[in-house]
């Protein structure tokens, strides 16, 4: 039976260059080429101890969004325990003050995705994120971080 991936999402307000603090992590983040407009995304993919992907992005102008952050972190793997371990390691090494962000709820609210009774359509927001990834709107690019 195939396990569904688990995703942890956190946000932060950070007014310096995020690239500099990523040097403090054990593994190397790659700068990603994306069509996300005003964001600078970085990614890290590893297969050890099991496959996981970390995506962290920062607003270029460090403007704080209407949702209260200018840095967004997501960690995806097959285990919520691994996600928490990676999150704690990243938070400790980078000293970023990361906190819970209801990412899919925020996206559904921003795009006005509503079900009957004005309930947010979280599934539709999640499908949008997956579709953007699959259509190449979030693309890997060789790093300028060495």
Distance from N terminus to C terminus (CA atoms, Å) equals 39 Å
Biggest sheet details: 7 strands, antiparallel
| Proportion in β-strands | 25-35%
CATH architecture group name of the domain at 6-102? 2-Layer Sandwich
The CATH C-level name of the domain at 6-102 is: Alpha Beta
Low-confidence stretches: 138-146
Mean pLDDT: 79
Number of helices, counting only DSSP H or I runs of 4 residues or more: 4
Task: Indicate the structural class.
Answer: alpha+beta
Q: What topology, given as strand order, has the largest sheet?
A: 6-1-5-4-3-2-7
Cα shape: globular
What is the β-strand count? 7
| Helix and strand element order | EHEEEEHEHHE
What is the name of the CATH topology of the domain at 6-102? TATA-Binding Protein
| Range of helix content | 25-40%
Radius of gyration: 15 Å
What would the keywords be for this entry?
146 residues; alpha+beta; TATA-Binding Protein; globular; disordered C terminus
Notes on the protein architecture:
The protein has 146 residues and is of the alpha+beta class. It has a domain at 6-102: TATA-Binding Protein (2-Layer Sandwich). Helix content is 28%, strand content 27%. The chain has four helices and seven strands; from the N terminus they run βαββββαβααβ. The chain has helices at 18-22, 80-94, 103-110, 122-134, and strands at residues 6-12, 30-34, 39-46, 52-59, 71-77, 99-100, 138-140. The chain has a seven-stranded antiparallel β-sheet with strand order 6-1-5-4-3-2-7. Strand 2 and strand 3 (39-46) form a beta hairpin. Helix 3 crosses helix 4. It is globular, with a radius of gyration of 15 Å.
